[in-house]
Amino acid sequence: xxxxxxxxxxxxxxxxxxxxxxxxxxxxxxxxxxxxxxxxxxxxxxxxxxxxxxxxxxxxxxxxxxxxxxxxxxxxxxxxxxxxxxxxxxxxxxxxxxxxxxxxxxxxxxxxxxxxxxxxxxxxxxxxxxxxxxxxxxxxxxxxxxxxxxxxxxxxxxxxxxxxxxxxxxxxxxxxxxxxxxxxxxxxxxx
Length: 191
Ligand SMILES: [Fe+2]
Ligand SMILES: [Fe+2]
What we know:
It is a single chain. With 191 residues, the chain is mainly α. 78% of the residues lie in helices and 0% in strands. The chain is built from six helices and no strands. It has helices spanning 4-24, 34-69, 73-96, 102-133, 136-149, 165-186. It binds fe (ii) ion (2 copies). One fe (ii) ion (FE2) is lined by residues 8, 12, 54, 58, 119, 122.
């Protein structure tokens, strides 16, 4: 099984790919057709689903490990968690809007900038220290938990759920099941 850094890096690459795609447009302002706008909305939904799962799993498993194994762990985890909570607020608002709304583009642009900063923070400020601090066995164990958690992770941002591992582990499955039920009704995230 891949270690935690490989698992998270794969997610980051996927998200960065989605951001680049969305950045290309076209948008309403640059003359997108109705069909292109519908596709743009769908891509934003996919981004929100991927991002919600990723951050929830980091909050359940990754940040507790950072707090435990790094001397600056609490500061690093607090900074990153604040970034994640702010992003969830933006994505919650974005999820309510259609792609022909100017506010949709404003929120998306904010998210794109912040998400790239957040990913860079994790990869450059947090990962190097944790790579040194975790032995191979621990890194693999953490990777497995995160990879397997994907199936049951929430698919919506939930900015009002406290980002604490205990709360997420206790409430996560019910929240994720409710997300999936809503997704099924609306066809959100379906191919
Ligand atoms: Fe994160
Ligand atoms: Fe991340």
